[in-house]
TrEMBL record:
The keyword Zinc applies. NCBIfam families: aden_deam, PRK09358.1-2. The lineage of its organism: Bacteria, Bacillati, Actinomycetota, Actinomycetes, Mycobacteriales. It comes from Rhodococcus coprophilus. The record marks 239 as: Important for catalytic activity. This is Adenosine deaminase.
């Protein structure tokens, strides 16, 4: 990989410099990125009880609760964010603020996902839930543009893998694909809920010539990745961090790829890696042990993502800075990871090229000098 000497005197790894870089985000959960103050205000409006009553204390509670080291416990924190996203006003506000926060962080394109089936407790229909979120995204894009920050948001509709509505959500995603929804996803605890359980939804999506990603290889391992790729035909892997289990270091230290790892690399299946979240959920023990750098050196299509900005107290800038500090990356590396993500986005090819050629490359050229 590159090191900081590639651009002497320019790349200092600071948040101030990295924040200026154009970024592309493929794996970000809407209900995992609320502002603590917004959670407090919406909870007060709907009568929901929270575990803390100040922004600082609530932010700390989310971070500490998410630091459990298990995916199941990590997912329990969403009870509170989902609870305050049950009304048109709540959904639109959270979506609008999501765009503002990402734009402020230098993100130029993001695919933000959420599970419509979790927002029906106050009488909204699935279609109404999606409409309100998309309205919030559109408002956020307009406000960002007026402030001089161009950002585009694509929406991914997620089905919960422990439930039985995946086909319905896949149909919803296809129904809204000309109105801002760019793809389909499944999420939730992997153990006991294999991707193949939702094969009907994936077959429907493929038949409709639509895109989908699958949460796989975050907390379970190679069987989940294998099913997502071989049986379901995933366009991307949500996390995919445990592909590491199919890579063996030989006696000389040289990595040797198994058949699944080779297939994922050869087919250029993107990995939506989320370093901070992967440590929190126990997918890896520490950032130093994260396979991001190994996978990058082996030329897998790695991308940098936030997963849940509230629970991980993170941003794209923070994720890039910590990776640069840990593995010695320079601007050329961060640019490559960003282009990897843009190549992998669920946008038409010409629009991806336009963002790469007109926004990302010029943005990094200014930083590199």
């Amino acid at each position: 990989m590159s090191d900081k000497s590639l651009v002497p005197g320019l790349f200092d790894g600071s948040a101030e410099s990295v924040k200026l870089a154009p970024k592309v985000l493929l794996h970000d959960h809407l209900d995992g990125g609320l502002r603590p103050g917004t959670v407090l205000e919406l909870a007060d409006a709907c009568g929901w009880s929270l575990p803390a009553d100040t922004e600082e204390d609530l932010a700390r509670w989310f971070r500490e609760s998410a630091d459990s080291g298990t995916l199941v416990r990590y997912l329990e924190t969403f009870e509170h964010t989902v609870a305050v996203m049950q009304t048109p006003e709540g959904l639109e506000r959270v979506a609008r603020e999501c765009v503002a926060d990402l734009a402020d962080d230098g993100v130029v394109y993001a695919e933000v996902r959420f599970a419509p089936e979790q927002h029906l407790e106050r009488g909204l229909t699935l279609d109404e839930v999606v409409e309100h979120v998309l309205e919030g995204f559109r408002a956020g894009e307009s406000e960002a543009r007026a402030a001089g920050r161009d950002i585009r948001i694509g929406c991914l509709l997620t089905a919960m893998r422990h439930a039985a509505r995946s086909r319905e959500i896949a149909e919803l995603a296809v129904r809204f694909r000309d109105r801002g929804v760019v793809g389909f996803d499944i999420a939730g605890a992997e153990a006991g809920n294999p991707p193949s359980r939702h094969l009907d939804a994936f077959e429907y999506t493929r038949a409709a010539n639509a895109h989908f990603t699958i949460h796989a290889g975050e907390a379970f391992g190679l069987p989940s990745i294998h099913e997502a790729v071989a049986f379901c035909g995933a366009d991307r892997l949500g996390h995919g961090v445990r592909i590491l289990d199919d890579i063996v270091l030989g006696e000389n230290g040289e990595p040797r790829l198994g058949l699944l790892a080779s297939y994922v690399r050869d087919k250029r299946i993107p990995l939506e890696l989320c370093p901070s979240s992967n440590v929190q959920t126990g997918a890896v023990l520490t950032l130093a042990e994260h396979p991001f750098d190994l996978l990058a050196r082996l030329r897998f299509r790695v991308t940098v993502n936030t997963d849940n900005r509230l629970m991980s107290d993170t941003t794209m800038t923070k994720e890039m800075v910590q990776l640069a500090d840990m593995f010695g990356y320079g601007w050329a590396d961060l640019e490559r990871f960003t282009i990897n993500a843009m190549k992998s986005a669920f946008l038409p090819f010409d629009q991806r090229l336009e963002l790469i050629d007109d926004v990302i490359k010029p943005g990094y050229a200014v930083l590199i000098g």
